[in-house]
Amino acid sequence: MTRVIFVQSNEATQEVDAIDGQSVMQAAIGGLVPGIFAECGGELSCATCHVYVDEDWLDRLPARSGDETDMLEVTSEEPTEASRLCCQIRMNPSLDGLTVRVPQTQK
Questions:
Q1: Strand 98-101 vs strand 83-85: parallel, antiparallel, or unpaired?
Q2: Could you give the number of structural domains in the chain?
Q3: Residue 1 scores a pLDDT above 90
Q4: CA-wise closest residue to 54 among 2, 7, 90
Q5: What pLDDT, in 10s, does the model give residues 18-27?
Q6: Cα angle 34, 36, 42; round to 5
Q7: CATH number of the CATH domain containing 97
Q8: Domain assignment of residue 106, yes or no
């Protein structure tokens, strides 16, 4: 198993185990992470699983797709270069310890 660390806007952290191949969103839902709503169930159509990936991890992730970039334009907070929809990040051993921040407005 690999670990994902979710950081809330108040700096509270929650570590969640993820199965290789599972999306970060699925791990968040299974771990009851506050602020990850995933209303579309990971179908890339709602943007309610927006996270900010910590800078140290950005270069380890595949590039955003055009569809993901488009959906990030409708998130509850302004997207940045670190913005990702966590339904689009699949866990693997090289991402063990991945740290993402949940936007403050996703409560």
A1: unpaired
A2: 1
A3: no
A4: 7
A5: 999 999 999 9
A6: 155
A7: 3.10.20.30
A8: no
